[in-house]
Specification:
CATH topology of the largest domain: Aspartate Aminotransferase, domain 2
Number of helices: 11
Structural class: alpha/beta
Strand order of the largest sheet: 4-10-9-8-7-5-6
Shape: globular
Strand content: 15-25%
Distance between the termini: 46 Å
Length: 379
Amino acid sequence: MKLFDVYPLYDVEPVNAYDCIVVDKNGIEYLDLYGGHAVISIGHSHPHYAKRLKEQIEKIGFYSNAVQNSMQSQLAQKLGKLSGYEDYQLFLCNSGAEANENALKLASFHTGKSRIVAFNNAFHGRTSAAVAATDNAKINAPINKQQEVTFLPLNDIDLVKDELQKGDVCAVIIEPIQGVGGLDEGETTFFQQLETLCHEFGVVLILDEVQSGYGRTGKFFAHQYHGITPDIISIAKGMGNGFPVGGIMIAPHIKPKHGMLGTTFGGNHLACTAALAVLEVLEAENLMDNARLTGEYFMSLANKIPGVQTIKGKGLMLGLEFDFEVGDLRKKLIYDQHIFTGGAMNKKLLRILPPLNIGKKEIDQFIKALQNVLIVEKV
């Protein structure tokens, strides 16, 4: 049997990693400024994280959600405290797509309606309703297109109102900062008016914090820059530092019923251990402050690089927009400078999503490497 060929692969095979460094099978070290799609939050192979998982797997790694698992409650309490959502409810699953799938399903249960409002260039996952709410026709199969989804431009609140007052919308789903779409974001007034409209028309407001959450922007959640309180918050990527774990945080006015949501693997003992370890390190090492300060340092240097048209994002969720497509630039950074970066639907955008423990030394290394590549390209 061979692998189903759906991934265009770079010719690099990491076999080891520590902090912000990945090491390939030939012993070459690479600076990781992408974190595997913003997944690595506290650094590769963090000793506290590794210790916690090793200890847990020697006890029990998994049992079903048909029995008590106090680690889930510990995680909910810790997450509520650090995020500022202590009165919310937590449902655990395995990925960002599954988190958004459950968020949309719960919104439909709660409202008795089915239509979704999403936004241009959105990315919410690759499954059923989540991919239907993703603005990319290439990854939407005919079975996905049966979902009722209306896509709108960011920052046009009048168009949102026109849709919500039709009375058939169950949810508005939005990323506070778009990830795959290219780091675009709504204005604070737009988010605040969106919250007001959702309350007025009885529509569930879902904030997709799968990529932007868990301290990446300098606050626990990116939507907290806008002073809003969503009905549901979806979380995943940085939540487990590489261990598959996701979830939704649910406002107290949305009531649960036995059987309405479910998962086999979600919230298992190892997943909870990984998620607890991440929160413990985030708190102990002040990584949210580091994300904010290091992001500011990055921006101060990137502003001086010729060819950079715009710097997008917040904290360590950043994008450098050039006046040319960055595919070849990313290849040169990997193969010539040994640095991983990310791309986006916006082909001119270079995405920067490093572990949150990255320091100024690594930022300096990247800026120098980027300047070297740009100089060679001009020559």
